[in-house]
Amino acid sequence: MSHLDNIPSTPGKYKPDKAFRFNSSAASSSLSKLTLYSTLFLSVLLIFLLLLYSPSSKPSLRRHLSTGSHRTPLSLSHKLIRKSARPRSTTGNTVLVTGAAGFVGTHVSLALKRRGDGVLGLDNFNHYYDPTLKRARQKILEKAWVFVVEGDINDKGLLEQLFDAVLFTHVMHLAAQAGVRYAMQNPGSYVHMSKSANLQRAIIWASSSSVYGLNSKVLFSEKDRTDQPASLYAATKKAGEEIAHTYNHIYGLSLTGLRFFTVYGPWGRLDMAYLFFTKDIMKGKTITVYESPDKGSVARDFTYIDDIVKGCLGALDTAKKSTGSGGKKRGPAQLRIFNLGNTSPVPVSTLVSILEKILKVKAKKKVVPLPRNGDVEFTHANITLAMMELGYKPATDLEEGLKKLVRWYLSFYSRSKKKSS
Ligand SMILES: O=C(O)[C@H]1O[C@H](OP(=O)(O)OP(=O)(O)OC[C@H]2O[C@@H](n3ccc(=O)[nH]c3=O)[C@H](O)[C@@H]2O)[C@H](O)[C@@H](O)[C@H]1O
């Protein structure tokens, strides 16, 4: 068992594979993993730093701007930023998407752009998993005229400049980046700075189904208790939801949290089971399938990426403006939380059978008890609220979604192989 298995966070189940040039040093530190996943919401707060007037000197945007692996001259970058962020019509939104080169971030950015919204991406291209996959996503984004600024959401100077350059209407916060350290050292500064915030954008951000933790009541409803997280990852997501409440209450920020249920699909994350199962089955490598303590199936409400994207857009379209200004709440602001699941849980053993059928390869399986690392036995979303308020309606079942995933996987990695040989 690798040390990753001991980390009580859901993403910690993946064993790095050299074939993907996974950065094992980045992934191997439990502290950095915890930090990485414990900053989701605190990072959101940093977005507000750019809304502040600050006399501090602003570092050049130049060092943050790149297209692919090439640096771009400053004048050109400003042009790209403005072009990328400009909506097709005056009624379109202007959205900053953090984590734009990530799995969900890429799909959401493309969907927003496709329908005519202006989109500017921000991503630090960290090495949690193969950055070449992120670079490939970036190329797809560039083809669609979505420019991704390379930088950290915790870089106050950079954010100030981006917000100076573009009048965003919304922030779609999908990045989970390190940066909590500063907040932990100096938590008061957030509160202090937020007091002087001016224009506040509506924020839509990624929470997780993991907040339900040991909740045994099915289906998982937004009204259910979420005070029994089973992993530190889940605990930090839950903390994000609590902080959202506080900032909404004190400062009138419009905040919508989306609890994603095991999102899968083309361009997916390499640390997730459906993807490394696909890879290992094809290679004839043994996969480890977890079973619950009573020898029952572990199940997930696997949700296809296109459905998640529709939920994200629905959340953005129904988000109301923040009511705060200059650090003062002018009135009650919107605070929402939604489950985005498929509401059709599938046992992991069935996931494997579907993959075997699509790949036409028999998997070598080792069935082992669910590790005591914070994994939960099942998830099942009640999506009534999202259906009613966001018009959310998942339409892709696991078999159909996995077919699309495998099609993408085969073409992407055969192309990558050809390039490297
Ligand atoms: O909904 C979420 O909020 C989370 O979804 C995802 O977590 P999970 O649902 O746990 O997905 P994932 O690891 O792919 O395991 C899938 C299934 O395979 C089982 N599993 C896993 C590994 C293995 O080797 N064997 C196995 O049986 C395992 O027991 C599980 O039943 C995101 O990673 C997480 O970041 C977060 O977004």
Automatic annotation (TrEMBL):
It is a multi-pass membrane protein. GO terms for molecular function: UDP-glucuronate 4-epimerase activity. It is found in: Golgi apparatus, Golgi stack membrane. It comes from the Eukaryota. It holds the Pfam family Epimerase. GO terms for cellular component: Golgi cisterna membrane. The keyword Ubl conjugation does not apply. The chain crosses the membrane at residues 34-53. Its EC number is 5.1.3.6. Residues 95-320 form the NAD-dependent epimerase/dehydratase domain. Keywords: Carbohydrate metabolism, Golgi apparatus, Isomerase, Membrane, NAD, Transmembrane, Transmembrane helix. It catalyses: UDP-alpha-D-glucuronate = UDP-alpha-D-galacturonate. It is an enzyme of class 5 (isomerase). Its main location: Golgi. Homodimer. Belongs to the NAD(P)-dependent epimerase/dehydratase family. This is UDP-glucuronate 4-epimerase. It comes from Gossypium tomentosum.
